[in-house]
């Protein structure tokens, strides 16, 4: 990270952070802490990127938010733990002891609980709570939603860069000391133009960097839930089913939803 004082000619120009996911908002936080003015541009109408939770029950409030993107952090990630501490977010440890059971027409099957599945951290309100909290700490007017960056142009004589964006139907131009692109490299390669153009080698690398979990999709099924979870609850687990049951089918994950018992979850 370069402190603001290294940009004397661009003292009033912010560093533009493109993308208000975890990476972009964390970068903005670090830059601001170093005294660098920052502006965050986000294409969607929300922050969070691939962390996103949706309400599963109409009357469930925050307790019914289910992750459609990232869900877990891990106990052995010191940077995450530190960030959570600084943001005042207290994760809870996903219960990992107990039975795993499922029912088919042939009967009830019980699985030995897999070993090594401890230390999974979850977040009340979903993992997107990190981004919401980070965004909430940005200075006023430094985050612009619905703003898709389309082009970065390097200005001559070290004057920084000019960034073109679309805000709805309207084109926008920003002057910046520098830009941080905090989006999947493939999106950079395919959706952002550069002047001067990037080298063929760099473009190729951007195209080839895999986007983690880009194969995955989650959806929420509510209608089935009550009867299924109630049956599980009554017949298999002695009344201990709590939150969502997450079934993996190929690359898809399906949350089967029941009202969350926060007390049970937090134990
Ligand atoms: C289904 C699923 C499950 C996952 N589960 C886990 C998990 O349990 N644990 C875990 O650690 N990780 C998990 N991940 C991965 C995790 O979500 C990502 O690694 C992480 O959220 C990436 O953050 P990011 O800020 O780098 O990118 P993103 O979250 O993708 O943020 C990029 C942002 O840039 C914006 N953007 C894109 N193009 C432009 C543009 N031209 N102009 C302006 N803005 C733009 C996007 O709208 C987005 O908000 C999962 C991912 C998925 C999809």
Automatic annotation (TrEMBL):
What protein family is recorded?
Answer: Belongs to the flavin monoamine oxidase family.
Write one Pfam family the protein is assigned to.
Answer: Amino_oxidase
Question: From what organism does this protein derive?
Answer: Hymenobacter lapidarius
Domain spans labelled Amine oxidase:
22-99, 120-220
Tell me the GO molecular function terms.
oxidoreductase activity
- Signal peptide stretch: none
Record protein name field? Amine oxidase domain-containing protein
Q: Which PANTHER family match?
A: AMINE OXIDASE
């Amino acid at each position: 990270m370069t402190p603001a004082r290294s940009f004397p000619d661009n003292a009033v120009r912010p560093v533009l952070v493109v993308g208000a996911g975890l990476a972009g908002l964390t970068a903005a936080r670090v830059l601001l802490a170093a005294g660098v003015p920052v502006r965050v541009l986000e294409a969607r109408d929300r922050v969070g990127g691939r962390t996103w939770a949706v309400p599963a029950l109409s009357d469930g409030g925050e307790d019914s938010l289910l992750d459609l993107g990232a869900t877990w952090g891990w106990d052995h990630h010191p940077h995450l733990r530190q960030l959570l501490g600084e943001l005042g977010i207290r994760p809870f440890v996903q219960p990992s002891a107990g039975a795993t059971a499922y029912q088919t027409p042939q009967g009830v099957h019980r699985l030995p609980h897999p070993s090594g599945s401890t230390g999974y951290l979850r977040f009340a309100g979903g993992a997107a709570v990190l981004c919401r909290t980070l965004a909430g700490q940005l200075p006023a007017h430094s985050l612009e939603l619905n703003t898709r960056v389309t082009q970065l142009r390097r200005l001559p004589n070290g004057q920084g860069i000019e960034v073109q964006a679309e805000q709805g139907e309207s084109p926008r131009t920003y002057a910046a000391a520098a830009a941080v692109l905090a989006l999947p490299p493939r999106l950079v390669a395919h959706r952002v133009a550069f002047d001067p153009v990037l080298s063929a080698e760099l473009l190729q690398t951007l195209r080839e960097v895999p986007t983690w979990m880009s194969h995955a999709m989650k959806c929420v099924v509510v209608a089935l839930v009550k009867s299924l979870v109630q049956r599980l609850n009554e017949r298999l687990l002695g009344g201990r089913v709590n939150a969502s049951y997450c079934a993996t089918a190929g690359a898809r994950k399906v949350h089967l939803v029941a009202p969350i018992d926060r007390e049970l979850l937090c134990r």
